[in-house]
Write a structure and sequence with these properties.
Elements (H helix, E strand, L loop, with lengths): L4 E4 L5 H10 L1 E4 L5 H7 L5 E4 L7 H6 L5 E4 L9 H7 L2 E4 L5 H17 L1 H9 L17 E5 L3 H12 L3 E5 L5 H5 L3 E3 L2 H7 L2 E4 L13 H6 L4 E5 L8 H10 L2 E6 L18 E3 L8 H19 L10
Length: 313
């Protein structure tokens, strides 16, 4: 019998699963309910999740044998980090795997907003030829404000600069010289709000960033601004965004993430000026393969007491 028992409670690429099976006994249950997870976690030494599974204090308390929780991806806001730390359970992630996928999705959503692509596609499928009544805009020459210049935000800056956009970046920890290497310019947050034609969010969801964009921030934005969020839904006050869309202050928003997921009827996703996708920015064949292998390697390293590259707690 294998030394370690590993529960995978969300979907994981086959290559990652195969690697985990080399180091332990793997139970693959990508649709396990929150209630069943608490019941079943007891004998497992490792839990591997993506964003669907909520690793609560109750789950961690029930996991008497848990040594490590692995998040296949970047964000760990679905894991109770304080409870994990208190229980002596390591939390690791795979922060590099999805960089290209999410950055490409961000630019794709900005293009979709600029050219009204979803509405035009829907019209075509209804037999309507709306060429005469449609006038898009170009990204080249526009100002993109990037809030959060981590791995993904930095890649978005490179892509946007290559498209001829003027890129402003708000990231207090970076110097002007570091930002300029990405083809961007450092900006104060208020300056970014006032000057940007497009704003893209690349922040983790924390107590400090919850509802980071609210009524006061929308009021400061350039009229007709377009907003893209492929980070976390709770960063935006969705009620305030709805009001800004209705007033025209925000001309359109492209959202891959939402405060409550899955979304329900009447959510911001149903607004006519919103392009909505179901939290799939990182879901490319290539990114999922990288994430699966990376988290499998990190989880096995944690179980075997080897050095960790991406320990969160």
């Amino acid at each position: 019998m294998s030394k370690f028992k590993i529960l995978v409670s969300d979907s994981l690429d086959e290559e990652g699963l195969a690697l985990l099976k080399q180091g332990g006994e793997v139970s693959y249950q990508p649709k396990i309910s929150a209630e069943d997870l608490v019941v079943e976690i007891g004998p497992y030494h490792a839990l591997v999740v993506r964003s669907r599974t909520k690793v609560t204090a109750a789950v961690i308390q029930a996991g008497a044998q848990l040594k490590v929780i692995g998040r296949a991806g970047v964000g760990v806001d679905n894991i109770d980090l304080a409870a994990a730390a208190a229980a002596g359970v390591a939390v690791v992630n795979s922060p590099l795997a999805a960089t290209t996928a999410v950055a490409e999705m961000t630019i794709g959503l900005a293009l979709a907003l600029a050219r009204q692509l979803p509405a035009l596609d829907a019209a075509m499928k209804m037999g309507k030829w709306e060429k005469g009544g449609t006038l898009g805009s170009e990204l080249s020459g526009k100002t993109l404000g990037i809030v959060g210049l981590g791995r993904i935000g930095s890649q978005v800056a490179r892509y946007a600069s290559a498209l001829g956009m003027h890129v402003l970046a708000y990231h207090p920890e970076y110097s002007a010289a570091e930002v300029s290497q990405l083809g961007a310019q450092v900006a104060a947050f208020d300056e970014l709000l006032v000057q940007s034609d497009y704003i893209s969010l690349h922040l983790p969801l924390t107590e400090e960033t919850h509802n980071f964009l609210g009524p006061a921030q929308f009021e400061r934005m350039k009229p007709g601004v377009r907003l893209v969020n492929t980070a976390r839904g709770g960063i935006i006050d969705e009620a305030a965004l709805c009001q800004a869309l209705d007033s025209g202050r925000v001309a359109g928003a492209a959202l891959d993430v939402f405060a409550v997921e899955p979304v329900t009827a009447g959510s911001i996703a149903s607004h006519p000026r919103v392009i909505a996708t179901p939290h799939i920015a990182s879901q490319t064949v290539e990114a999922q393969a990288r994430a699966g292998v990376a988290i499998a390697e990190e989880v096995l390293a944690a179980l075997e007491g080897r050095p960790l590259r991406w320990r969160v707690v």
